[in-house]
Amino acid sequence: MNAHATQNLFKTELPADEPLIIMTRTFDAPLDLLWAVWTQPEHVAYWWGPREDNEIVEYDVRKGGKWRIISSMTDGDKVTFFGTYLEVTPKTLIRNTFVVEGMFEEDDRFYEEHHFEERDGKVFYRSVSKLESFEQRQGVIDSGMEWGANASMAKVDVILERLKSAQ
Length: 167
Known about the structure:
The chain contains 5 helices and 8 strands; from the N terminus they run αββααββββββαα. It is of the alpha+beta class. Strands 1-2-8-7-6-5-4-3 form an 8-stranded antiparallel β-sheet, with helices on one face. Strand 4 and strand 5 form a beta hairpin. Helix 2 (about 30-40) crosses helix 3 (about 40-45) and helix 2 (about 30-40) crosses helix 5. Mean pLDDT is about 90; it is low at about 1-5.
């Protein structure tokens, strides 16, 4: 797993004119499977963050629903991530707030959009993180977000392969 964790699975864009982080990639799986891996807590507990022993405190994927995940870091520390779902269009779009406890005040949360589009039996995925400032964006980048996202996606690939094999 660790060999995959350092692979750059995303194409990452940092626009010069807006404090956005745009990450894209294609998953070699049908949309139904990726949606399940993205929205079912038992799968999220495995793929979220650098380790596979996350605590899903809350994960209510619907408009107005809350999410809270306590993640174990590679150094043994625990980090709490949380937010609110602002919009959920099944198998198409998830919009949510994103807060890292202790990194930003809740008022300094940022917004994420997760777009899912099926293309010839695969899924094109696009994530857009909308930050309040370029300084906030740099803080997120400096926190290791890109490495963590790639590590997580390597584990999503593992789950997808298991699910495809079980079909």
